[in-house]
Write a structure and sequence with these properties.
- The structure is a single chain.
- The chain contains 15 helices and 13 strands.
- The chain folds into 2 domains: 205 residues, Rossmann fold; 178 residues, Rossmann fold.
- It is globular, with a radius of gyration of 22 Å.
- α4 crosses α6 and α11 packs across α14.
- Helices cover 44% and strands 16% of the residues.
- By secondary structure, the protein is α/β, with parallel strands linked by helices.
- Keywords: Membrane, Transferase, Transmembrane, Transmembrane helix.
- This is Glycosyltransferase involved in cell wall bisynthesis.
- Pfam families: Glyco_transf_4 (PF13439).
- One of its GO terms (molecular function) is glycosyltransferase activity.
Length: 401
């Protein structure tokens, strides 16, 4: 490898997620702001109809960073056509930025940015980082957006194989997905790094719940087709039979009617349920009020590559949680660290046993600090940024034989 110093290094970061979106602020800028400031980073992002004030807020946030921001608005229209146009425009713009600046690294965040990066992967000596974020094509299958028996799926899976083959480095969210990538796409294990979905643990404080009040179970987020929300409600129903005073707090935006219809299926013990919509800035405080958290995802192929953000947020406040196996590394993180329970089947017997085990963890006076430590050591922005820093340092140029 050629010897480079940090001041020589430049990285082009391509993201289909806009920096004006909450996810872009937390999962892109949140990491990059903690990377060594001697690294020059150019971000090319696709924004969803941004307001000028939102753009100005991002520009103000990065003005003291070694970050130069190039942004374009996403194309509108039919999904397939607009996505193709975004790839084409992104390809042209990335080539222009590359030709003007020259880069040691290209960091492609998810599949569409990696498609944009393919010409650079094939025709340049720049190292390409494929930050997969999940199995994007199969996620569309789970959402019923793509027919797994159709031609589009076949074509996209061929492209997916090409993306993995052209990547010099792959970043995945879970160890479970690393095993799949190694076996299915013949990527060397040494070229795969795991950075889970991380949270800013400094925004979360330890739980301030008191043993004198009712037991508070919490659910955060959507109840869409990826989730087993019926099983979540069933678990609370069983919990309410074991714990005399209990309350279920559901923090959700937009699904109140759907949630209410699900609750009405239960004849009793479901009165102490609150459905609230709160702002993103209020959520750290809400997490800290809970005794336990709960989340269940459907065990599909794409979920092997998923790391639930809410798991890190629960643990950041010292709150044990109950999840399900088959979803990324949830089972390993919760059970190996004794910070929660993972259900493998949704039988009534297993759910009752899981609730009993969760209550035993909560009764352990050291469980809150144990949860917090797991969040800081494994799921914090600092820990994730340290891994990303190592990747940038080790792979800033291709080796030359």
């Amino acid at each position: 490898m050629f010897a480079h110093t940090m001041t020589d290094k430049k990285c082009l970061y391509i993201s289909y997620t806009g920096l004006t979106e909450p996810l872009g602020k937390s999962q892109i800028l949140g990491y990059l702001e903690q990377i060594d400031t001697d690294l020059d980073i150019h971000i090319l992002s696709f924004e969803k109809s941004p307001e000028r004030t939102d753009l100005q807020k991002v520009e103000s946030r990065i003005q003291d960073q070694n970050i130069e921001w190039h942004h374009i608005e996403r194309c509108r229209g039919p999904t397939l056509l607009s996505t193709f146009m975004d790839i084409f425009v992104g390809f042209l713009l990335s080539l222009y930025i590359y030709a003007k600046n020259g880069f040691d690294l290209v960091h492609a965040r998810s599949y569409i940015p990696m498609m944009i990066s393919l010409p650079l992967a094939v025709f340049s000596t720049t190292n390409i980082i494929f930050d997969i974020r999940g199995f994007w094509i199969d996620e569309r299958v789970d959402r019923n957006s793509i027919d797994p028996d159709g031609r589009l799926y076949t074509y996209l899976k061929r492209i997916e194989h090409l993306l993995f083959q052209q990547a010099d480095v792959v970043i995945a969210l879970t160890k479970a997905s690393r095993d799949i990538i190694t076996q299915k796409y013949s990527v060397k294990p040494d070229n795969i790094y795991i950075i889970p979905t991380c949270v800013d643990t400094e925004k979360f404080e330890m739980s301030d719940n008191s043993p004198d009040g009712p037991f508070l179970l919490g659910y955060v987020g959507t109840v869409n087709e990826w989730h087993h929300f019926d099983e979540v409600l069933d678990c609370y129903h069983l919990l309410s039979e074991q714990v005399d005073e209990s309350c279920f707090k559901i923090y959700n935006k937009g699904d109140r009617n759907k949630i209410q219809r699900e609750i009405e299926k239960y004849p009793k013990n479901m009165d102490n349920i609150e459905i609230k919509s709160v702002s993103h800035s209020e959520m750290p405080k809400k997490y800290s009020e809970l005794d336990a958290g709960i989340f269940f995802y459907k065990d599909t192929y794409s979920k092997k590559a998923t790391c639930p953000t809410k798991m890190g947020e629960f643990l950041s406040t010292g709150t044990p949680c109950i999840g399900n196996s088959g979803v990324g590394d949830v089972e390993d993180i919760l059970e190996q660290n004794q910070v929660g329970v993972a259900i493998s089947e949704f039988s009534e017997k297993e759910k009752r046993e899981a609730i009993t085990e969760l209550l035993e963890i909560i009764d352990d006076p050291y469980s809150n600090q144990r949860c917090r430590n797991v969040a800081i050591n494994q799921l914090s922005l600092e820990s994730g940024s340290n891994i990303l820093q190592d990747i940038y340092t080790q792979h800033h140029t291709k080796s030359v034989s």
